[in-house]
Amino acid sequence: MYQETKLTLQAAQPRRVLTLLFLTVPLVCLGCSRGGDDIKLAPVSGVVTMDGKPLTNAVVIFSPQKGNPSSGRTDSSGNYTLTYRDQLKGAVPGPHSITIITAPPESPRQSEDSGVAEVIPVDTFASSDQGVPKLKLPKDTFKKDPIPERYNSKSELKKEVVEGKNKFDFELQSK
């Protein structure tokens, strides 16, 4: 009898494990979903000009008082559309500080995701008398940002994002 009970318990164990798995896995998946991330976003777009001309390749950043910022890159016509994290379109409603900076140029290598590290050619290094190589950079590597700091590092630009569509145009002056 003892032997029979032991066999019955051993046979029931795999069923218990499977039942437990079938109940646990959906709960874990629910916890990993974005369902609890109910952030309300409002669409934001506009045009950025400098001295009356479209500002190409600039990044417009809207930073709320609380929460994550949204950003967008201007196209050749100066148009931008804000994107929140996870590629969601829009910005959190409420007051925002605005920063406008020059974006680094997009290179074809950045868009390729080959998983292979980029190799820097040896001739980009200059010799050093201490034996540590120094990187030779082009003269224009650290050129001044053409967007004045009053629009970026010392920006006082502010906008209120409201529910519904928002269109904010920025007319920057270089001087």
Provide an overview of this structure:
Residues 130-158 are annotated as: Disordered. Residues 137-158 have a biased composition (Basic and acidic residues). This is Carboxypeptidase regulatory-like domain-containing protein. The strands form 3 sheets. Strands 1, 2, 5, 10 and 11 form a 5-stranded mixed beta sheet that branches. Residues 28-36 and 109-114 have low confidence and may be disordered. This protein has helices at residues 2-32, 108-111, and strands at 44-50, 53-54, 58-64, 70-73, 79-81, 94-102, 125-126, 134-135, 157-161, 166-167, 170-172. Helix content is 20%, strand content 26%. It is globular and about 75 Å long. Strand 1 (44-50) and strand 2 (53-54) form a beta hairpin. It is an alpha+beta fold and 175 residues long. It is built from 2 helices and 11 strands; from the N terminus they run H-E-E-E-E-E-E-H-E-E-E-E-E. It has 2 domains: 2-36; 39-105 and 143-175, Sandwich (Immunoglobulin-like).
